[in-house]
Amino acid sequence: MSIPRVVIVGRPNVGKSSIFNWLDGRRLAIVDDRAGVTRDRMVTLIEHDDRYFELIDTGGMGHEDSDNLTKDVELQIAAGIDEADIVLLVVDTRAGLTPMDEMVGERLRKIEKPVLLLANKTDHPGLDNAALEFHRLGRGWLIPVSTLQNRNRQTLFDAILERLPDNAIEAGETDAPRMKLAIVGRRNVGKSTFVNTLAKAQRMIVSEVPGTTRDSVDVHFDLDGHRFVAIDTPGLRRNKSIRTDIDFYGLHRAQRSIRRADV
Ligand code: GDP
CB of 245 closer than 6 A to ligand 1? Predict the structure, then answer.
């Protein structure tokens, strides 16, 4: 049996990557106050109260990508929703309900999966009333949370675990993979294409735009009956070419991936 999956979706900048890191307990995904940083699907295995699930972070729905990758990002989001057992729809209490949230709600309307509506950035109880506004989306069980103030993390875990399909995980399924391969090199040499070939799926966005991959992404695949992880990494650049925070995070994440890998 497979590991149940929980996908995080929402418009840009509501705190999806922050929730991903918060539930995992590590700083895995890049959190930034600019919209549209996350492009690929990030996956991490979560263990809580002896249960397991895969948590998937996605790019912002409805974001117009500056490198014309909007369609690719949307395909990754759709694949994430498709393979999920539970959807976490994230909104931002401080910003209030926006037309983009309504668009996201509309897109999830026909999905017959449990949806939890996370009103993130509900940083103190005084904002709980403001969070109620999101009931108007008419989708999902509303939970006010704050990654910044660590509010309602256990409530959220309880709500997720209650709704997980109870397919027990077979022994060995969460064992460490046989080998972790970090795929590194300069930008645009074909790292993501190579990873997709190993995974036999369009797991990573591939484009001619240098720097398409922004974060290190773990992609699991099976070969000859063994489990492996390929870690796709942002392309390495010379120090003097590092211009933006995204380049900086990318380099840092790639270096960490190299340390984490066996090969
Ligand atoms: P994403 O684009 O939806 O993945 O959003 P990010 O996780 O990158 O976060 C967007 C911004 O919201 C960042 O500046 C975060 O620091 C901020 N943020 C995330 N969670 C909270 C929260 O609980 N409260 C507040 N006030 N800000 C938050």
Answer: no
